[in-house]
Design a protein that fits this description.
Layout: E1 12-14, E2 30-32, H1 42-65, H2 80-96, E3 99-102, E4 105-114, E5 118-126, E6 130-133, E7 148-157, E8 163-170
Antiparallel strand pairs: 1-2, 3-6, 4-5, 5-7, 7-8
Length: 177
């Protein structure tokens, strides 16, 4: 199975100490700043990620149902770079006169990493209950689309333990969906 590394942040400081003739407490020459987890347990982190991703799918489905118009509610749920990516997809719907129907879902969410600034999870997103309709209300042929897709999703932890989606990548290892 291929592992996709997730952003890891390590902060170190180096303190230079001069010579002294008096005895004192040892002064460390380097130290790493420890980051306490944002959540009390992995279960709490996973629950927060599940809630954040469910809200993201619901808002995304609603924007697509409206033809990709008015994507602003997505800004509250994703990072600025992720919003730019999402907006490109919404623009395709707008340009083609498409609209979405149905609801996306997910399952098989497993925690990959959790710390004070980020939570990463593996999950299976399921689009099998969605359709894309053109302006004539005919179904758009998306036969090459995978209905269930394995993803690695990273959430940024904001104040008050609010999560926003920072990235979403198709998992290139063994398909666990």
């Amino acid at each position: 199975m291929r592992f996709i590394p997730v952003l890891a942040i390590s902060i170190a400081s180096l303190t230079l100490v001069g010579c002294s003739t008096t005895a004192s407490e040892p002064i460390p020459t380097s130290s790493a700043v420890e980051q306490a987890p944002a959540f009390a347990s992995d279960e709490e982190a996973l629950s927060a990620a599940q809630a954040a991703y469910a809200e993201y799918l619901s808002v995304s489905d609603q924007i697509l149902a409206d033809g990709g118009n008015k994507p602003e509610p997505m800004k509250e749920l994703v990072s600025p770079s992720m919003f730019d990516q999402e907006s490109e997809g919404f623009s395709v719907f707008q340009a083609n006169g498409w609209r979405g129907t149905g609801s996306s879902s997910f399952d098989s969410m497993h925690l990959q990493e959790s710390n004070s600034i980020e939570i990463s999870v593996y999950l299976c997103v399921d689009h099998s209950q969605t359709k894309v309709l053109n302006a004539d209300e005919s179904e758009v042929d998306l036969s090459d689309r995978l209905e269930r897709l394995p993803l690695l999703v990273s959430f940024k932890v904001l104040d008050q333990k609010k999560l926003i989606i920072n990235s979403s990548e198709t998992w290139t290892g063994e398909n666990f969906c």
